[in-house]
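Protein of interest.
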Amino acid sequence: MNSVPPKSIILIEDIDAIFVGREVATTNRCRISFSGLLNALDGVKTQDGRILFMTTNHKDKLDPALLRPGRADKKINLQNASHTQMEKLFLKFFPDDQDNATRFATQLPDYKISMASVQEHLVKHSESVKECVKRTPDMLQ
């Protein structure tokens, strides 16, 4: 973190997989302690102007020290797709077809399907809006 330039965006994916409790993690490039990570995030040498994103699929496994204000100022839960999101994504593939966008989205349950699955379906059927809407129930199987 000391070598990251100012005004950088840093991404640590799957932060829950780095430590088991506060045990030292070893990778093929470096060794870091939990304390070392916390100091890198907001210790004395921390530089202002950096934005850090941390992702996890297991928030419950994260040490509370990692989530305290100053280290994690915003927590955003990314859910599965809402009807509105599905409609908007549909319209990216089939612009100006609001009727079919609504028909498509209402065939699917709210917040039960990922945006990635919706996108996969739309790409698969991007040649035919009729086939895309007709095959929407296939996503539920």
Observations:
- The CA atoms of residues 40 and 46 lie 6 Å apart.
